[in-house]
Design goal:
This protein has 16 helices and seven strands. By secondary structure, it is an alpha/beta fold. The strands form two sheets. It has a five-stranded parallel beta sheet with strand order 4-5-6-2-7, covered by helices on one side. Strands 1-3 form a two-stranded parallel ribbon. The longest helix is centred in the C-terminal third of the chain and has 23 residues. Bound molecules: zinc ion (ZN). The site of zinc ion (ZN) has 8 residues, from helix 3.
Amino acid sequence: MSVSFKKIYGNELSKSLFAENIENNKLPHAIILEGDRGSGRYSFALNIAAATLCTALEKPCDRCKNCRQIFEGVAPDVTTVSLPEDKSTISVDAVRFIKNGAQSVPVEGDLKFYIIRDADKMTVQAQNALLKILEEPPSFVVFILISENVNLLLSTIRSRCCTFRMQKLDDAELAEYISSTYPKAAGLQKSDESAFNRIIKTANGCIGSVLDNLDKRRFTKICDEYTVVKGILEALSKSDKSDFMRYEDELSAKREDLKESLFTIRSAFRDILAVKKGVSAELIFFDSVDDIKRISKNFTLSSIAFALDVIEQTLNSNEQNANVNLLKINLMNALWKCVH
Ligand SMILES: [Zn+2]
């Protein structure tokens, strides 16, 4: 038998390590897949389960009963635990549910899987409960923890897991893959190349994000956000503080939306930093170096570093459920102070 992950693009090293482990029946019992949203972590987790439980010679085949059930989300031996839609954390009850299920042997094969999406959203109590299971895992259970940032997991959990980081694609690879695989994307590339490029840039190397971004409403939001962030930077480069501060209203008061705006502002400052330092890096936010030079005439290297710090701090406070309206005001004031 042989294992190959044909449906997973890139990530060659991780794919070959998992293939070897599965072929030799040596899959680790606790795995962390770390990466950005849309980087294919969940899809990879399902493919690992399918490659293990598939009954064909070339695994995963996508056609046998086990593969089909896994990809349809109805396999008896593959359970996914996700963040409830109306909650911001995964509670200890969810881990108790896993603990109870993990005691019984698999229905079909030799192994059963628990995939925990948003694992870094587990409460400390939930993580401690999971730790107890990881300390003495049943021999027939594999845990796959999906995380955006492993540093939010207890170090005791991290030390018991093998961590794999999803690889990001560069813009050219992403554009080529997307336009050759999805006709809708190819159509957009032909009809409106700059819109297509904006979608690619915003996706930050993640295939799933491009697919999300192709959704019309989302695409409109990205274009709006680009306009707002560009406006913020233009106003920041001038001397009228009240004109700059009015952009606070343009930033969303929703926590998740503010997070995305902060990522966009951070990308813009990183572009500025690269150009100021004379580093030839691919631009993430701006379309041209001329735009950056015009906007950042009065920015010094230290003011850019301060601004990046302010953005990181705001992202952290946002994660820790600080009041969003207060965060927006503080962010705008702090950014102004960085430059003026
Ligand atoms: Zn199969």
